[in-house]
From TrEMBL:
<dbReference type="InterPro" id="IPR007395">
    <property type="entry name" value="Zn_peptidase_2"/>
</dbReference>
<keyword id="KW-0812">Transmembrane</keyword>
<feature type="transmembrane region" description="Helical">
    <location>
        <begin position="148"/>
        <end position="170"/>
    </location>
</feature>
<keyword id="KW-1133">Transmembrane helix</keyword>
<feature type="transmembrane region" description="Helical">
    <location>
        <begin position="120"/>
        <end position="142"/>
    </location>
</feature>
<keyword id="KW-0472">Membrane</keyword>
<dbReference type="Pfam" id="PF04298">
    <property type="entry name" value="Zn_peptidase_2"/>
</dbReference>
<protein>
    <submittedName>
        <fullName>Zinc metallopeptidase</fullName>
    </submittedName>
</protein>
<feature type="transmembrane region" description="Helical">
    <location>
        <begin position="6"/>
        <end position="22"/>
    </location>
</feature>
<feature type="transmembrane region" description="Helical">
    <location>
        <begin position="197"/>
        <end position="221"/>
    </location>
</feature>
Length: 229
């Protein structure tokens, strides 16, 4: 009994601490480098526009959006949206974030395989994420292993989405670094700081994937135990 309770507490701590640590790391790194001006003097909006134009993506718009770290690329409307601070200011963090989001726009224009796959997964992953837990809990309460299995299958699509997100995000960050260096947005001595911003942001996706995989494994083990009883 004591051993199982200890295992549960460790598992619960894993699920809670990893995402919180990743989120804290992102915010602290971003806050630090959002106060340091980029040597180019270019705002995030100017960095995004410059990289887009250099890659022939004149139809992709750049717009400000309210909030902090709300930056994203909308593939449906072909818009790079940057949080207001990153849009208007000339910080190292703002340049890195802007270039990263433009990296997604470049992926979209080049039909990057993992991005296309992730986009195709969105409907089933969204449904699986919302419905799976109800099927799993219902199956356990009613001792219906097939219902639990159905929930696990649905959850696996949500987990697959998290895993596919990793190469998409890392690739966008790699593209961001290459573009910023090539157009002179950052100097050689600024590359280290820029990488810190991009790596910190990547931690949130890694943390989300780890938690998703851990949850899936837990339910698979529970399903196995049900069938062995």
């Amino acid at each position: 009994m004591f051993g199982s309770m200890t295992a549960f507490l460790i598992y619960f701590a894993f699920l809670m601490i990893i995402p919180l640590w990743a989120s804290s790391r992102v915010k602290s790194t971003y806050n630090k480098y959002s106060k340091i001006s980029a040597s180019s003097g270019m705002s995030g909006a100017e960095v995004a526009r410059k990289i887009l134009n250099d890659n022939g993506l004149f139809d992709v718009k750049v717009e400000p959006v309210k909030g902090q770290l709300t930056d994203h690329y909308d593939p449906r409307k072909k818009i790079v949206r940057l949080s207001e601070h990153n849009y208007y200011k000339d910080s190292v963090a703002g340049a890195a974030v802007a270039a990263h989001e433009v990296g997604h726009a470049i992926q979209d224009s080049q039909e990057y395989a993992f991005l296309k796959f992730r986009s195709a997964l969105v409907p089933v992953a969204s449904f699986g994420s919302n419905a799976s837990i109800f099927l799993i809990i219902g199956g356990m309460l009613l001792t219906l292993s097939n219902l639990v299995l159905a929930g696990i299958v649905l959850m696996s699509f949500a987990v697959l989405f998290q895993l596919v997100t990793l190469p998409v995000e890392f690739n966008a960050s790699n593209r961001a670094m290459d573009q910023m260096v090539s157009i002179g947005v950052i100097r050689n001595d600024e590359e280290r700081e820029t990488k810190k911003v991009l790596n910190a942001a990547a931690l949130t996706y890694v943390a989300a994937a780890l938690v998703a995989v851990a949850e899936l494994i837990r339910f698979v083990l529970m399903y196995t135990m049900m069938n062995n009883e």
